[in-house]
From TrEMBL:
It is an enzyme of class 3 (hydrolase). The lineage of its organism: Eukaryota, Viridiplantae, Streptophyta, Embryophyta, Tracheophyta. It comes from Penstemon davidsonii. Keywords: Aminopeptidase, Hydrolase, Metal-binding, Metalloprotease, Protease, Zinc. Its cofactor is Zn(2+). InterPro entries: Peptidase_M18 (IPR001948), Peptidase_M18_dom2 (IPR023358). This is aspartyl aminopeptidase.
Length: 539
């Protein structure tokens, strides 16, 4: 929270809860219903009778593997979220997938290096570094000086990244040197089936270069833990690996004297090359090029386990990178669906925008991060293009004053085993709606006015919201909210979907919260103009 092509989803053999032979003879054998009127029943909704539909099918890992019921599929975006997560192993893949979806929805790709020709009713987007993205839809009734309604999130997540010189060998193993990115729970990366994904620069025969994304879908790497027999006090003293010397993944065993000449050549060259030749060969095979044509690589270590639904009622999303791809997807989908028809923008006076930034997890101070003037420059260029003439500072300043930004980043749900880590009156739970974040020291940008306006959107649509403040005796994380609020001077509210296991290699959030966040964001785009004009603070 600190924060191109689609691949065929990995086939996962998920543990299944099989129906009995008797149930299998019935038409609805894939599910059954429990009725329990006992006094000790754990009631979830306050009813006197428990009525829950238990699914006996394997966990849903993508929308293509299984489907919701007809009534649910028309309302839920969870299956599409799983597809998005399974596509988006890195910030580059997340941006590329967002780009693909925007193009499919009819948005026009802009280039920051070229002049923009925009018009009311148009839908546009651009990418920067292929790891950040800004998309916007212009209201038909927009006039210069009207505001931008923005939802901002980030595409990056804590992970391990290959060092510029990653090749090393230890005790007969080919190892890969990595550096930590962000504040990850690094012990969760041990004993996982890991691989590599990211981007490469490939040299063409004519001397030009191309930018390509790559993803090795099979398990390729592993960081093994030390056996308890060799570390007897680990359960009492804690697992405290040295991140420089004990977090490097294994790639392969070194070639021995009986190996083929090819393997001997690969092993010998590994000691002098920046990256193991074996690794470069794997990458070149995936890309369909020669290893010597790969001019540069920028790769993340990724967990290969697919995102899926879990829990007894399939009520949880189990996945890596929920922080903050869940927010990014909900915001992107809300923008696309809020202007899906020609009539969607005909009465809109504002500009609807989504901004997805990179490098939030390390402070946002980068060319592609929220600390750069990306969104500020985009707003100015939009106004200048629509004004069809030189636009003065007053027009731009008025537009910013009329604007509103939702900083969407995952929130800390109360942990059932560590309840005391939350302030007793502010304990967000899963499945209960977006969490509005407050901090008196401005670690979050929420104010009394911005929380009120954002809550009004929820009230009109009967959507639940929750509140969060950190305990006074604990430090507070932050988001891109304060960065953008202070950098642009835009009214901002910080909110997020409640989750557990934040910054673990495998995180958890509530399935219902995904749909609630999507509906809240979509309603924000569609009706904030009418709500905002009812409140006058500085007039």
């Amino acid at each position: 929270m600190a924060a191109v092509a689609r691949f065929h989803l990995l086939q996962q053999t998920c543990p299944s809860f099989q129906p009995s032979a008797v149930l299998s003879k019935f038409p609805l054998a894939s599910s059954f219903i429990f009725y329990n009127s006992g006094t000790n029943t754990n009631l979830r909704s306050g009813a006197t009778t428990l009525l829950r539909k238990i699914s006996t099918t394997p966990p849903l890992c993508s929308n293509s593997e299984s489907s919701f019921s007809s009534s649910e599929s028309s309302q839920s975006i969870v299956g599409d979220l799983l597809d998005f997560l399974n596509e988006s192993w890195t910030q580059f893949h997340a941006t590329a997938e967002a780009k693909r979806q925007l193009v499919a929805a009819g948005f026009h790709l802009l280039n920051e290096n070229e002049e923009w020709q925009l018009k009311p009713g148009g839908r546009y987007f651009f990418t920067r570094n292929m790891s950040s993205l800004v998309a916007f839809a212009i209201g038909e009734k927009y006039s210069v000086g009207n505001g931008f309604h923005v939802i901002a999130a980030h595409t990056d997540s804590p992970c391990l990244k290959l060092k510029p010189k990653s090749a090393s060998s230890k005790s007969g193993y080919l190892m890969v040197n990595v550096q930590t990115y962000g504040g990850g729970l690094w012990h969760t990366w041990f004993d996982r089936d890991l691989s590599l994904a990211g981007r490469v620069i490939v040299r063409a025969h004519d001397g030009s270069f191309s930018h390509k994304l790559v993803k090795i879908k099979r398990p390729l790497l592993r960081v093994p833990t030390l056996a308890i027999h060799l570390n007897r006090t680990v359960n009492t003293d804690g697992f405290k690996p040295n991140l420089e010397t004990q977090l490097n993944p294994l790639l392969a065993t070194e070639a021995d004297n009986e190996s083929s000449k090819t393997n001997e050549k690969i092993s010998a060259s590994s000691s002098k090359d920046a990256h193991h030749q074996l690794l470069m060969q794997i990458l070149s095979d995936e890309l369909g090029c020669k290893a010597q044509d790969i001019a540069s690589i920028e790769l993340n270590v990724c967990d290969t386990q697919p995102s899926c639904l879990g829990g007894a009622y399939k009520e949880f999303v189990f996945s890596g990178r929920l922080d903050n791809l869940a927010s990014s997807f909900c915001a992107l989908r809300a923008l696309v669906d809020s202007c899906a028809t020609p009539a969607s923008l005909e009465n809109e006076h504002a500009i609807r925008m989504v901004a997805l930034f990179d490098n939030e997890e390390v402070g946002s101070d980068s060319y592609q991060g929220a600390g750069a003037p990306t969104i500020f420059e985009a707003m100015r260029r939009v106004i200048a293009s629509l004004g069809q003439q030189s636009v003065g500072e007053c027009s731009f300043a008025r537009a910013i004053r009329h604007s509103f930004l939702v900083s969407a980043d995952m929130a800390h749900g109360v942990h059932p085993n560590f309840v005391d880590k939350h302030e007793e009156n502010h304990r967000p739970v899963l499945q209960k709606g977006l969490v509005i974040k407050h901090n008196a020291n401005q670690r979050y940008a929420t104010s009394g006015v911005t929380s009120f306006l954002f809550n009004e959107v929820a009230k009109i649509h009967n959507l639940p919201t929750q509140e969060f403040v950190v305990r006074n005796d604990m430090g507070c994380g932050s988001t891109i909210g304060p960065i953008l609020a202070s950098g642009i001077g835009i009214r901002t509210v910080d909110c997020g979907i409640a989750q557990l296991s934040m910054h673990s290699v495998r995180e958890i959030c509530g399935k219902e919260d995904i749909d609630i966040a999507y509906k809240h964001f979509k309603a924000f785009y569609e009706m904030f103009s009418s709500i905002d004009k009812k409140l006058n603070v500085d007039g």
